[in-house]
Amino acid sequence: MQADRRRINAPAGGTAPPVFTFTSNEQPPKRPRRTRGPDEHRKIFLRTGVVPSASGSAYYEIPPQPSSAQDEKLTPKSSSLKITCTVHGPRPLPRNAAFSPNLLLSTHVKFAPFATRRRRGYVRDASERDLGVHLETALRGVIIGDRWPKSGCEVVITILEGEEDGWWADGSGAEKGAGWGLMSVLAGCITVASAALVDAGIDCVDVVSGGISALVIDDDAKTEHVALDVSPPEHEIKAMCVVAYLQSRDEITECWLKGDASTNTEALMDAAVKAAAMSRTVLAEAIGEAATGQSESESTRASAKGKGKDVTMAG
Amino acid sequence: MANGANQSPGLSLSRDTFAKLTPGPFLHAHLKQAQPTRPNGRLPHEFRTPTVNTGSLTHSNGSAVVRAGDTAVVCGVRAELLRASDIPHPPSEDIHPDDLVEELGLLVPNVELSTGCSPSHLPGNPPGTLAQSLSYRVWSTLLNSRILDVSTLAIRHTELQPEDEEVPDAEPRVVVKGYWVLYIDILCICLDGNASDTVWLAVMAAFRDTVLPRAWWDADQERILCSSRLAEAKSLKLNCLPVASTFAVFSTASPLKDRAEAESWVLADPDGAEEGVCEEAMTVVIAATGDGATATLLSLEKSGGSVIGEAGVAEPIEYSAP
User: Fold this and answer.
1) What's the pTM value of the predicted model, to 2 decimals?
2) Residues of chain A with C-beta less than 8 angstroms from the C-beta of B150
3) Cα distance between residue A156 and residue B102, in whole Å
4) Neighbouring C-beta atoms of residue A42, cutoff 10 Å
5) What is the pLDDT of residues A90-142, one digit of tens each?
6) What is the pLDDT of residue A24?
7) Rg (CA), chain B
8) Rounded to whole angstroms, how far apart are CA atoms A188 and A194?
9) With an 8 Å Cβ cutoff, are B213 and A76 in contact?
10) CATH code, B72
11) For strand B211-212 and strand B154-159, is the pairing parallel, antiparallel, or unpaired?
12) Could you tell me the CATH number of the domain that includes residue A232?
């Protein structure tokens, strides 16, 4: 591979991630277990307006699950999802761009190099571009584009920490690259992008929220059931589904189903819609909080302005 | 105009409009008061107080999130292994150990600005000049300060000499089987001026948080293995703790005016708006050694003007000294 001249590169010999061993008197790490019910969602932390230099921004986090024997190990058991999103625009298209009667939406999803167990590069790879396309489909159906002709809007997502593809210690999911983690990341991306769009003041028909569900194999390896908001390390997953859902219009703008769900397809989608409805409550709360907080800070700013010296330009 | 009614008549503009239209005179109007205060409410020599959070990333050996005002930076340090046998051109034996870190490329810092942190650095393009120069500055300061000894990164193995009749009690030989390579990935989440100080602070905070697992050479499997126990892991031994501080100079000098008439102010830790109107800037890197009682000047960069003369250099250095 050609070295990137614009960045500082790794040593020419190439490096390998460390290999950990467990001595005989040590317990190998145990797979985390799902402690919540099959129709319970993990807690979501969502906040808007974290990047003042952008028109709109939001931060999304699923805090790490409390686990029993986490301590004293260097190898983390599971990761938590951390996503930031900024929206730049709407702003005029460059002069040489072709005329567009609608708002041109472009999405950009990038994993941070330290987001996953395996270090990622700085150049976007195919999976990241694919996530961007999925996100764009999800958002395009929501934005009222014809209110901004001849303008563009960028949605930029940085994933500081991604979801894992499987339980790393059995080396199956994580190695095969089944991509279960990506789907869960997409659901987060949809929700956070929606919050950032609202923060940027871009007109939407409704707030869109992402939800995820999976067909998981039970412990006895014979039966299977549908669970919503799955964390891939906790389950054997057979099929997974992400939806972008508009609750007040009862519409789905994006649906991505992967794996063999056979007769359970409908149940899987219903569960994903249910998960999306749950994340919508968080979304609505965060937006509402930002709206009330903003009006408060605006009023304090106005009063501060009255007291302080307002510099005026004397003609 | 409907919204013209509630505005005062004449050329009086609202604060935000004034700041946007003519940033230079706006800053000047603030500074020329009896008690110079910057538009952001700080005194000229006042720094923004950074908040530092460490250890929040799961997949890094050390990490830090630093926020100073509206500039926020995330730094993750990840250690990977470079096998000694994989080095294509091994450096010669007599190389000074201090130069080995650079020669082998054991520190790989990269600053990424295209995370949507500001409208001028949109993603989709290769890193711009600012990002490249920031990466390079971090890299050169890390090497120049000799912050890490190569011995903290080397993985040694005591090799027993094969039984030899001629030399019965051969000394066990210590060989270096590999090195830790530290990938220092710095993402700017939010940019409002003075990225370099914040980036550097984040690198330092992440370094102090970094732990390297105990690693050894396994002769049977012929590879380096690591222990996953946190109790055996060691934190990095840092030789010094450099601190970077940046100052901008706002000057009313212009080619049309007499030089003696020009006024100038030194502003510590400039924000985005101030950076835009100040031409002259200066960065001082000071390293506190050991107990922090003494500090040495590590580097000094000044560009863009002649306001700070030889004598004036001392003043910002005093301010940045801990």
Assistant:
1) 0.88
2) none
3) 35
4) 17
5) 999 988 989 999 999 999 999 999 998 888 888 888 999 999 999 999 999 99
6) 64
7) 25
8) 10
9) no
10) 3.30.230.70
11) unpaired
12) 3.30.230.70
